[in-house]
Specification:
This protein is α+β, with helices and mostly antiparallel strands. It has a single domain, classed as Aminopeptidase (3-Layer(aba) Sandwich), CATH 3.40.630.30. Helices cover 29% and strands 24% of the residues. The strands form two sheets. A four-stranded antiparallel β-sheet has the order 1-2-3-4, with helices on both faces. It has a three-stranded antiparallel β-sheet with strand order 5-7-6, covered by helices on one side. The longest helix has 15 residues. 27% of the residues are buried.
């Protein structure tokens, strides 16, 4: 799937100012086993360069422990994990997952991250749209996200609202819901 934004030629993303519409030829596809090392590096960069400004060291360590190479490989079996490629480079990742069960599904966004230098150029929004379509394809009534502190504004722009009841304050995650 090629997605294009108007204004600038491909491969010039890193030199653009933040919050600019860009033209990029990118492909969104399901992640493969051979992608997981790159996905882990992308997540680690976000943890170290972005989330570290918003979350405690204890929470960052917890995030990292949940996203080891082994755990990410395992997630391919129970999440629908996508990667976004610009050419051969993985520039973003995100997953669609049911954190509920068959009788009472809780369709959710999981591990949606874009290379830090590409924030916010619209890549996350395009990937999010793919995940949202997966929820709609399952005729979901709502869509959920366990958001890190830094991503709350992004998800609000996408149409989510902060849940009144939050499961755990200690994990520094804010659950949000979008009614479909």
């Amino acid at each position: 799937m090629a997605v294009l934004w108007k204004k600038t030629p491909p491969n010039s993303l890193r030199n653009l100012p933040r919050a600019v519409d860009v033209e990029i030829d990118m492909e969104i596809r399901k992640a493969k086993k051979e992608d997981i090392e790159h996905v882990k590096l992308l997540l680690d960069r976000n943890f170290d360069e972005v989330l570290s400004k918003y979350h405690s060291k204890a929470v960052l360590d917890k995030f990292k422990s949940h996203n080891t190479l082994e755990n990410l490989l395992s997630q391919l079996n129970w999440k629908t994990v996508y990667v976004v490629l610009e050419g051969e480079e993985i520039i973003a990742t995100g997953a669609f997952v049911n954190f509920g069960n068959i009788a009472k599904p809780k369709y959710s966004v999981s591990n949606l991250y874009v290379l830090p230098e590409l924030h916010p150029k619209g890549i996350g929004k395009v990937l999010f749209t793919k995940l949202l379509q997966a929820a709609k394809d399952r005729e979901a009534n709502s869509f959920h996200v366990p958001s890190s502190k830094n991503a709350i504004a992004f998800y609000e722009k996408m149409g989510f609202a902060i849940d009144k009841k939050q499961p755990e304050k200690d994990d520094e995650i804010t659950w949000m819901t979008m009614k479909l």
